[in-house]
Automatic annotation (TrEMBL), chain A:
Belongs to the bacterial solute-binding protein 3 family. This is Sugar-binding protein. Coiled coil: none annotated. GO terms for biological process: amino acid transport. One of its GO terms (cellular component) is extracellular region. InterPro entries: Bact_solute-bind_prot3, SBP_3_CS, Solute-binding_3/MltF_N. Residues 49-59 have a biased composition (Low complexity). The keyword Transport applies. It comes from Streptomyces shenzhenensis. Residues 44-63 are annotated as: Disordered. Keywords: Signal, Transport. Residues 97-328 form the Solute-binding protein family 3/N-terminal domain.
Length: 347, 470
């Protein structure tokens, strides 16, 4: 909507030139004179809240109404087997494994420590994947990890390349039409990461004229492009640099190709832990929940994972947090703990 | 004789006709139209042609000129070809090989770097030193290539690009290593970036360099091998003229041999024969060096590059762990495994081609061995891939970079076999090309000397006849 107004304003400015040329009397010129004060105030960010902002806010409110609290749109827990779980259990021999899409680049979430012998992935997400495998197949090691880039999480589920994705994946409204999510297992929010010496102070006007890196297909990118449209983010901010994995943003930052990174606070903290010269700037500016993503029609699996999560929150979650995340996110796990689950989805 | 004296006053015509004009040069004509020196010379020639000594002088001059021209054109044309042959042997072929080596070193360095990452923990010393050696080789060969490239040529552009990207690449790999040692996954991110720099920018530039150096090699071959038609035609004309002159002498004097003319004929005949035989031998040598050397070398270089790419993709499929996929005909494949299959097919084709071109046992044996190694590689790769696809990552890793029975062994043997075959074919190339060049090496000088002797012979021969008129 804002873009259309922008166009209208430009057209009207051209209309002004026409006014000068035609001198007087033209109906078009009259119309543009009448419209000018209105469009100008809408386009000028310094004139308080833009006229169009109310309508934009109303629009997103309407969208949010259609999907209030995406983290609650999940099925009630159940331990019963169904067609999806039967198919997984029917796998033979070496292939009798739960195939889980993970990240191998998220420090302390899902990564391969180059200094440990062997090639095991480790981290908070990996612990959860093992836990789910143990519950479904009775063996915590009966799991095959597939590393997938951020923008491949949904296609990988839809194509059946993985049974589920446990990969710091935010439960978001627009994703609910493609995949089914479990109840939330972690709480986080978008945050800005920049060099300590940078003048960037957080998610605000200090990002004007700066280049920001995000992962392709991430909620961070969606949020940035929305905010650029509605004026929360200065329009001079360059968000064109996108990379396959959020960690590639740290590389871009270190190489000086971007000035800041926007990603989930949990992952931004992991990045900061790998480079003492960068830090988180400002507080989280969104609230997001991580969930396990599965195929849209895999109801039995969703219910089963939700049951695993009930047990996990009671026993295991804190242990994993202490082992992997307390060093980067702080001793106090309360800000990260997911809310008590609600199961609003019925079918 | 017979000149019309237009400048003299009419009274001179009263002189008795028997007295004739006074001997000595005629007075310069003072009245226009003034005649050109050429026209006068032509008149003189025409006048000379009416007497036998005059004719003999003209014949002598023409013969000498023909023989000299023959010698000069022969020297010029063979010198051109000899220097082109020299370029093939000492310049363009080595440069084309260097370009292939640059490509090979870069691809190998990239593979070594990713193997090091896969191995995890303390990177083993061999992978490290292999990487360092590759980078050093590439840098050294780039310097040679730069010194031999013309400014603004496609080669120079590609070399400049590689010279700029190489330190950048090395920087990224160093950072990856440092972070790996600290246990941070951002090291892997640096390695991925380094790999994409290599795949998307450096290897295409190196391929460009290889292609343009190969073009130069082909151009040098094109300059070295065509028949010197102009020299040969002139040789035939000169010999024909000499034969005609001798037959004329025989008709007039009944003398069979004129020593000078015989010597001239001999010299011209030797030059012509030398030219034809020498050039044919050189051509055969050079064509042989192309057919048995360059084509084999190209097939082997292609095979080596294909095996390197296959190895790189095999490693990267384990580094990426299924992160990259391609969709072909509705089916989704792991991007690196998909590329590996194509690389191995390329390798098979290039090896078959190299085997077909190998014309002796010494050249064929290492290629056949490489083919066997490739077959084993394919088997082992299939079993490693099955492990990977069943989720047994560690087992798959052991089968790819492990100490024994891993695909790495097969790759190394294929590479070693190809290296031996390359050395053999390079020897063959050098031998043939050197033989070819040698066949022409003294021809320019020899043709020049013999032509001068021949021309002198023709002049002496005619001079001898001429002296009979004094």
């Amino acid at each position: 909507m804002n873009a259309r107004e922008e166009r209208g304003r430009r057209a009207s400015l051209r209309g002004w030139g026409g006014v000068g040329a035609m001198a007087a009397g033209c109906a078009l010129a009259l119309a543009s004179v009448l419209l000018l004060p209105l469009t100008q105030s809408a386009g000028d960010p310094d004139d308080g809240p833009p006229a169009g902002a109310g309508r934009v806010a109303a629009g997103s409110q309407a969208r949010a109404d259609a999907c209030a609290d995406p983290e609650k749109q999940t099925l009630a827990p159940s331990g019963a087997d169904g067609p999806t779980i039967d198919a997984i259990k029917a796998r033979q021999g070496a292939k009798r494994k739960l195939i889980v899409g993970v990240d191998q680049n998220s420090y302390r979430w899902g990564y391969r420590n180059p200094n440990t012998q062997g090639a095991e992935l480790e981290g908070f997400d990996i612990d959860l994947a093992h836990r789910i495998a143990a519950d479904i197949l009775g063996d915590r090691d009966a799991v095959q990890f597939r590393a997938i880039p951020t923008n491949q999480r949904i296609p990988a589920i839809e194509d059946g390349r993985v049974d589920m994705v446990v990969r710091t994946m935010t439960i978001a409204c627009d994703r609910l039409s493609d995949v089914a999510f479990s109840a939330p297992y972690f709480k986080t929010g978008q945050q800005v990461l920049a060099p300590k010496s940078s003048s960037i102070t957080g998610y605000d006007d200090s990002l004007a004229d700066r280049r920001i890196c995000t992962a392709t297909g991430s909620t961070a990118y969606t949020k940035l492009s929305e905010d650029k449209q509605n004026g929360r983010l200065p329009s001079s901010t360059d968000i064109s640099v996108t990379v396959p994995n959020q960690l590639d943003c740290l590389v871009q930052l270190q190489l000086g190709a971007v000035d800041a990174v926007v990603t989930d606070g949990a992952l931004a903290a992991s990045q900061a832990a790998q480079d003492p010269t960068v830090e988180l700037k400002g507080a989280a500016f969104t609230t997001e929940y991580y969930g396990v993503a599965m195929k849209k029609d895999a109801d039995d699996l969703v219910r089963r994972v939700n049951r695993v999560l009930v047990d996990y929150r009671a026993d295991g979650w804190q242990r994993s947090y202490d082992e992997w995340l307390s060093a980067t996110l702080g001793k106090d796990a309360a800000p990260s703990r997911p809310p008590a689950p609600e199961y609003l989805r019925t079918s | 004789m017979g000149e019309v004296e237009v400048t003299h006053p009419p009274k001179s015509s009263a002189a008795p006709p028997g007295a004739g004009p006074a001997p000595g040069p005629p007075a310069m004509p003072a009245v226009p139209p003034r005649r050109t020196a050429f026209a006068e010379g032509l008149d003189r020639l025409r006048a000379a042609a009416t007497t036998e000594p005059g004719r003999l002088r003209i014949i002598g001059a023409v013969l000498a000129l023909l023989v000299l021209a023959f010698g000069a054109v022969t020297a010029w044309q063979t010198d051109d070809r000899a220097s082109a042959a020299d370029d093939v042997l000492n310049r363009s072929q080595p440069l084309s090989s260097d370009a292939a080596d640059i490509y090979r070193s870069l691809a190998d360095a990239n593979t070594a770097a990713s193997s090091g990452f896969l191995a995890g923990g303390q990177e083993n010393a061999t992978a490290g030193s292999r990487y360092e050696n590759d980078i050093r080789t590439a840098a050294e060969k780039l310097v040679t290539a730069a010194a031999n490239s013309e400014p603004d040529s496609p080669s120079a552009v590609a070399i400049a690009k590689l010279n700029r990207l190489l330190p950048e690449y090395k920087g990224l790999v160093e950072r990856a290593r440092t972070y790996n040692r600290q246990g941070y996954p951002v090291g892997g991110a640096y390695l991925r970036l380094a790999n994409s720099r290599m795949q998307d920018r450096m290897l295409p530039a190196a391929e460009e360099l290889y292609t343009s150096e190969n073009e130069r090699l082909k151009a040098d071959y094109r300059d070295a091998t065509p028949y010197p038609w102009a020299a040969m035609a002139l040789g035939v004309i000169a010999l024909g003229a000499l034969a005609w002159a001798q037959q004329r002498t025989y008709r007039r004097t009944n003398r069979v041999l004129n020593h000078g003319l015989v010597a001239a004929t001999g010299a011209a005949a030797i030059v012509l024969l030398w030219l034809v035989v020498g050039h044919s031998v050189a051509r055969a040598g050079l064509n042989g060096s192309y057919d048995h050397g360059v084509r084999s070398l190209n097939a082997l270089h292609d095979a080596r590059i294909a095996s390197l790419k296959a190895r790189g993709n095999e490693n990267l499929s384990l580094v990426a762990r299924g992160a990259d996929t391609v969709k072909v005909g509705g089916q989704t494949y792991d991007a690196y495994y998909y590329d590996f299959d194509r690389n191995i097919a390329d390798l098979g084709r290039s090896l078959a081609e190299a085997k077909r071109l190998a014309d002796d046992r010494a050249g064929g044996r290492p290629v056949a061995a490489a083919e066997d190694d490739m077959a084993v590689w394919k088997q082992r790769h299939a079993s490693a891939r099955t492990e990977d696809e069943s989720g047994n990552y560690q087992q798959a890793l052991d089968k790819v970079i492990g100490a024994e029975g891993a695909t790495g062994e097969c790759f190394d043997s294929v590479d070693a076999g190809l290296k031996t075959a390359l050395a053999h074919e390079r020897d063959q190339f050098e031998q043939s090309a050197r033989d070819g060049r040698r066949a022409m090496s003294f021809l320019p000088v020899g043709a020049a000397v013999l032509a001068v002797l021949g021309a002198a012979g023709a002049m002496l021969g005619i001079g001898r006849r001429l002296s009979e008129y004094r």
